[in-house]
Amino acid sequence: MNKSSAALPTLHPRWVVAGVIVAATLIWGASLYSITSQIGRPFPGFFYAPDRIVSAFTPQDFTGWQADLRPWDRIVEVMKLPVSVCHQVSIIGHHECS
């Protein structure tokens, strides 16, 4: 028996499967929480970052595209009122910052 094989612990397949199940459950739980926390909140028709940049993850069938908003556009006004920070977008547009 050499030193290198004695220093490495053997990982039982049961622990690998358990680890994968725990990781998948945590990801599923976080996703479910994220989705259910949005229920009842208004949605502006596009996703945006705290620096008011329209996200590239906004699908083309959302109303943001119909309003001619494209990925990487910066939000400068909401309902004809100028905005300079994400918090103003959320107050005027009734949407919370990401």
Using brief descriptors, characterize the structure shown.
mainly alpha; 98 residues; elongated; two-stranded antiparallel sheet
Question: How would you describe what is shown here?
Answer:
The chain has 98 residues and is mainly alpha-helical. Helices cover 43% and strands 4% of the residues. The protein has a two-stranded antiparallel ribbon with strand order 1-2. A hairpin with a 2-residue loop joins β1 and β2. The longest helix has 25 residues. It is elongated and about 65 Å long.
What is this entry, summarized?
With 98 residues, the chain is mostly helical. The chain contains four helices and two strands; from the N terminus they run αααββα.
* Percent of residues in helices: 40-55%
How much strand?
under 5%
Poorly predicted parts: none
What is the count of distinct domains? 2
Major sheet details: 2 strands, antiparallel
- Shape, per Cα inertia axes: elongated
Tell me, rounded to a whole number, the average pLDDT: 78
Q: Report the radius of gyration as a whole number of Å.
A: 23 Å
Q: DSSP helix count?
A: 4
Q: Enumerate the strands of the largest sheet in spatial order, edge to edge or round the barrel.
A: 1-2
SSE string, helices as H and strands as E: HHHEEH
Number of strands: 2
Would you tell me the structural class of the helices and strands?
A: mainly alpha
Distance between the ends:
56 Å
